[in-house]
Amino acid sequence: MNISSLISPNDFIKNYQEKKPLLLKGAVNKENFSWQDANEIFERSDVISDDFKISCQGIVQKSEYVEKFLDIGTIRHRLIKPVVYEYMKKGATIIANKIANEPKVNYFSRKISDLTGRQVVSSAYAAFGSKDSFRCHWDTRDVFAIQLIGRKRWIVYEPSFKDPLFTQQSKDYEKSYPCPEKPYMDFILEAGDVFYLPRGWWHNPLPLNEPTFHLALGTFPAYATDYLSWLMKRIPNFPDARKSLSHWGDDKSTLHSIGKHLDLLLNNEELYRNFQDEFTGAVRVASPLALNILGDPSVSAIPSESRLRLSAHHASGLDNHYLIANGTKINLDERGAQLISQIVEKPGISFSDLLTIFSEEDEEKIEHLIKNLCSQDILELSNS
Ligand SMILES: [Fe+2]
Question: What cofactor does this chain's UniProt record say it requires (predicted)?
């Protein structure tokens, strides 16, 4: 995936993120993805969960295409393949949401996370017919559509209801905020193309009566409403917030006082940082295991060709010499902060290249620090 050579994170965040769509032609090497990969992603999905769906003019009942069986004392579920094939032949779309533990999908997710600095949730869609899987709608998350096999026609319209939240689905709002008549974009997304669509933009991806497989990677930032909900948990500490209410005349001074208190909380930078740190601390990144290096007591050195990345979507506390990754917060000295900055600026930098940058430093101390950060799942160590 050469997204980083087509657009930088700064350019993307400044000019496109939550602002307007972006089409990146040929951003992905389509040769690295085949129908075998697509089949395996659906095969390994949890087919009984609500995250797995077959859509054929509406969502198909799970009991039609999933069977339960006893596998040496363990209840398992599997697809009833003839039923699935028949639905696919009739033009159905097969959908896997919240994909986890799939290296090829994780690879794309990490690239999108590098670009956006946000947590990414992945879905996969496959179809062979010409039926549209959903009618024209808006998504409540920013989405990157990565077309990996075949093509789809995308018709995109400007938002009629800006920045919808999860609870504000287009089907409930389309009468009051109808889709504009004039399309903003109408194009064919081809294998290897990536299309970024901010939440709220109407769209209708149409299959072209040919095989198609695409990933939809949604990004998950903290929203202002999340901050408000977080602050509300602190409100009972304020005495006036615990008062009983009876009549407007009696209560308006109490409510005025609560309003002033809320204003102070909302504009407190330290509280804002605490909220962001808590939000970041709750996020986990699917980093690879490195048992052969970090779990083997006889291995003391990090192989020089090992690649290093931050095990977090962004390094928010780095300016203040701390870092939160995979639920752990660590404080950094000057050298530690410089080291992490290099890895953040060059995700996937090799250990030997990193040592070259800090050539005057004590190599052993750096290796010890890197090993410690990798063991704590703050940095990830990989071969590629
Ligand atoms: Fe959508």
Answer: Fe(2+)
For residue 61, what are its two tokens? 């009942």
C-alpha of residue 111 to centroid of ligand 1, in Å:
20
What distance lies between CA 321 and its chain's CA centroid? 26
**Could you tell me the pLDDT band of residue 46, with boundaries at 50, 70 and 90?**
very high
The Å distance, Cα 363 to ligand 1 centre, comes to 50
Note the pLDDT of residue 187: 97
CA 131–ligand 1 middle distance (angstroms)? 15
Residue 154 phi, psi dihedral angles, 5° rounding: -115, 125
| Residue reference for tokens 């506390």 | 317
Band the pLDDT of 133: cuts 50, 70, 90.
Answer: low
* Range from 19-28, 175-184, 244-253, 313-322 carrying the lowest mean pLDDT: 313-322
The Å distance, Cα 114 to ligand 1 centre, comes to 22
Spatial CB neighbours of 102, under 8 Å, sequence gap ≥ 6: 41, 44, 122
Enter the pTM of the model. Answer: 0.90
Distance 379 CA to ligand 1 centre (A): 33
